[in-house]
Amino acid sequence: MTARSLSWAGIVRLGLVQTALGAIVVLTTSALNRVMVVELALPATLPGVLVALHYAVQMLRPRLGYGSDMGGARTPWIIGGMAVLAVGGTLAAIATAWMETARVPGIALAVVAFLLVGLGVGAAGTSLLVLLASRTVPQRRPAAASIVWIMMIAGFVVTTAAASRFLDPYSPVRLITVCAVVSLMAFLVACLAVWGVERATAPQAEEKTPLKVPFFDALREVWQEPEARRFTVFVFVSMLAYSAQDLILEPFAGAVFGRTLGESTQLTAVQNSGVLAGMILVAVAGSAFGAHRVSALRAITIVGCFAAAAAIFGLAVAGYHTQAWPLATSYFGLGLANGVYAAAAIATMMQLVARGRESREGLRMGLWGAAQAIAFGVGGLAGAAALDVARLITGSTTGGFAAVFIVDGMLFLLSAWLASGVARDRAAEPAMTSIKAAAIR
Length: 441
Known about the structure:
The protein is mostly helical. It has helices at residues 8-39, 45-56, 61-69, 75-98, 103-135, 141-167, 172-194, 197-200, 215-223, 226-244, 246-255, 261-286, 294-318, 327-352, 361-394, 397-419, 435-438.
């Protein structure tokens, strides 16, 4: 008898967890960043360090994936992670508001809050991907991953669009209220979405007792796989390029184009709408051109990286033409390119996760997740710190932003070159999609 797998409706339900997760994260990494830099006139390095801390904690993702491979229920990990994330998101807003009157205590609380945010994202996000992969039949996994990621981006879009209506005019109380309400609603949505799904479905593989291999031995085995190692390097560099822009786009709109907090948050919604459109474009058009094959996914990834580089170079010019430049269009175009690149990279990840040693899929996914998290932490911090340095060197706010955008565009070009070598030696081979090899326990 075939075990019951996740239906498309079940996949969408799990996607709501990512939507809720994204709703909290987008406020802590965009709106709070903007408040620190613009309203409180703090160095851009501060939010860069805080966001880097939240990514540093996610280095635990391989260990979490290893734990999932060893067995156990995932639902408590998801709900627990979301609870920690909601508390961290609320405390981050309180800490940001507190910085206005008590800078040192506010920063100290922010450190704790962002560590909680990172821990919650790592616990909930990793466990969710493991549950999704283990309960979904192999043929649906690439599409399921895209759906869940798209729904996370939708959480960005909905949250930033809705929050922008309530954040103006800025006040500390208003900021705390908006973030607390969003965090509470996100936690409740995640609980309702995941409740009962694990009990109602079954792993799409024969149950086996996993070998109790020590974690570091298992990690060493995965790292020795050439394909897994090469893809890890690509994920790190490409996500470094992707994340370097995150902490400077809202301050760019405020400091160079004079946009208010609500207006710059709305621009973040426009950018994330572009990401969403790019991912949908790949998902819809890709099926007509066989984009499930690694070779096709590689080509789409390269195109997305080149397009992102072009969009970033455009923003480097935009600051010198503030009156005539279509800023919203540029943000949407950048988001569109990022969405195309990200969708193709995620689909590639889902195709490659089953290639290698059996019963290591969760660890392999965790390794790539850790590479992404480290890159996001380093990229966000490097982008923010580079902005401060570039301002000093150029003696100009506009020149500082332009210099950082140019470097970021070059990183995207490097990512395109790295993508050209991903899985090339096995592009002609069929993906190992047998149920036995692809199961994640």
